[in-house]
Amino acid sequence: MPILEGHFSADESARLCRHYRYACERMTRIMAGWIALTPELSAKLLLGRHVWDNAQHTDAWGRRLPELRAHAQESEASSEAFVQLMDAIEQPEEPGQSAERLAGIYRVLKPHLLAVYGEHRRRANPVYEPPTCRILDRCMEDERRHIAAGETIIQHLATTPDVAGRVESWQRTLQGLLEAARGVTGQGLPPIAAPSPTEAPLSDDAREFIALERAGQTWAIPEDLETAVRAFGDALVAADGAGLRRHLHHDPDAAVLATLREGRPLRHRLVAFAKLGRHRIAKYRLEGPGRATTLNARWEQGESGWRVGALDLVKTE
Hints:
Blueprint: H1 10-34, H2 41-64, H3 80-90, H4 98-123, H5 130-157, H6 161-181, H7 206-215, H8 223-238, H9 241-245, H10 254-263, E1 267-276, E2 279-288, E3 291-302, E4 305-316
Antiparallel strand pairs: 1-2, 2-3, 3-4
Helix pairs in contact: 1-2, 2-5, 2-7, 3-6, 4-5, 4-6, 5-7
């Protein structure tokens, strides 16, 4: 019956599953090991998020094997040349090589796996290979998403000609090794299709990873604001109503002035500073004999420069 004919025998399907599992298992271990070596938060989040998916792919291929009359959870490289490719992908370990690390995975290995999975899916028998097809479908969906996210982070990291040049050179080197190995199956390299736009969930959106990285970067206080913050701190230490008025939108609160005068502070320190929309929040700690006072000042920029819109007493101790 022609409908039962397929391109892959059970033994051949098992062999391919072992090859796929080898690539996924090595990739999972490599990416997991890179997380601690990678200083950029966006790349760390990318690797951490995709390690889990890769581990699921590894497990799925391993669980498929007993159904094909083979030992469960076994990996097999198609050739020593493919082992050498995976060894090469793992090589960049310096902190400044994050872009090269990602290029090996997201520009070389994953696009190749996606192409191989797609070729296998097109040739699979629809009657007796649905379990394999379901695994292929899941892996292809994840790989498309991974490739798009990885490319976003690579472009974020490779913003200088030097880094971009290193990435392209490393990519060519790995591509040559992949061709020499004749791919993950040892049977050649299917053509790689142009990436198609994918809608990523928030938990896997590379743009969110970049935004989180930037949110953690140090924000420099503008020089004019820094001068005003320091002068206002001096006025707080002196409990100088006139000096405080020069920086406040309104007269200083009587209770705050009384607290300052009772505490007789000798010095002030800026212990926290935050950017909140158009406002800047400065937390002052005033220290004197036997008492420390903490206040929050909400700074706003207007036509006359930076001024304090609100001054709140946080605590005394």
